[in-house]
Specification:
With 267 residues, this protein is an alpha+beta fold. It has eight helices and 15 strands.
């Protein structure tokens, strides 16, 4: 898998170069609304084209699933690249320097390669299945906690699924009684990378898309963590409801969350 990891890194860095140039020359950034509380910029699209160009040059037969361009089915659909060119577009638009590029490779339904790149801080998180996770070529591990008391959690508000707002706030309040503090930073891919390297002890969010978490999930797993849905099962790939952390923190989060789940969030 090393050659494919190299391509994922090259693609992510190419997209990062597009983003940082635009961030420095912000007058040329153009934004539009593509859905409820959902924005896209010309930078998202340019960065996605840079990722696709790098992948296509190396693997023209592979399928590419992009947040902005949709699915381009290749002749070898066993290999699927899942990409988010700019995770944290709202932060980017507000000039909050916290966003990332996410590139993952799924082979026969299983993610084998994952890269999350923070172009502002030049931090590159990478993982290959079975080979551990790294930050700028240094091995990383999830934080070790025996329970959720005293932990620092990351989360994301359900701003695209506000029908879950009341349930989410109940979960938030219940967890907040036990943890040290919580952060809502605005890039799920980067939040998961932070869990992988121990900056966050755990993370949960409702309704993520595959391009939001495919690379980050592999980072967490390869760093010794666990990723589940809100009920502690394995349906997060479909529901997008993610809980992540070291094994005991993930279990603790699920146990605290489970009594508060609506029927829709139990799946």
């Amino acid at each position: 898998m090393h050659p494919m990891l190299n391509i994922a890194i090259r693609a992510a860095r190419n997209a990062g170069n597009v983003i940082t140039r635009a961030y420095e020359d912000f007058d040329k950034v153009e934004a539009e609304q593509k859905g409820l509380n959902d924005f896209v910029t010309n930078v998202d699209r340019d960065a996605e084209r840079a990722i696709i160009a790098a992948i296509r040059k190396a693997y023209p037969e592979h399928t590419i699933i992009g947040e902005e361009s949709g699915t381009d089915v290749g002749t070898d659909n066993d290999f699927q690249w899942i990409i988010d060119p700019l995770d944290g577009t709202t932060n980017f638009l507000k000039r909050i320097p916290h966003f990332s590029v996410s590139v993952a490779l799924q082979v026969k339904g299983r993610v084998e390669v994952g890269v999350v790149y923070d172009p502002i801080n030049n931090e590159l998180f990478s993982a290959c299945r079975g080979q551990g996770a790294q930050l700028n070529s240094q091995r990383i591990r999830v934080a070790s906690h025996r329970d959720i008391k005293g932990t620092l959690l990351g989360t994301g508000f359900p701003f695209k699924a506000r029908q879950h707002a009341d349930t989410y706030m109940t979960i938030f309040a219940d967890l907040f009684a036990d943890v040290a503090d919580m952060r809502r930073a605005g890039s799920a891919a980067l939040d998961l990378a932070y869990v992988a390297c121990g900056r966050l002890d755990g993370f949960f969010e409702i309704g993520l898309k595959p391009w939001d978490f495919a690379a980050g999930e592999l980072l967490v797993r390869e760093a010794g963590g666990i990723v589940t849905d809100f009920a502690g099962g394995h349906n997060h790939g479909t529901s997008g409801n993610i809980v992540a952390g070291c094994p005991k923190v993930t279990a603790g989060l699920v146990n605290k969350m489970r009594p508060n789940l609506s029927e829709a969030l139990q799946r």
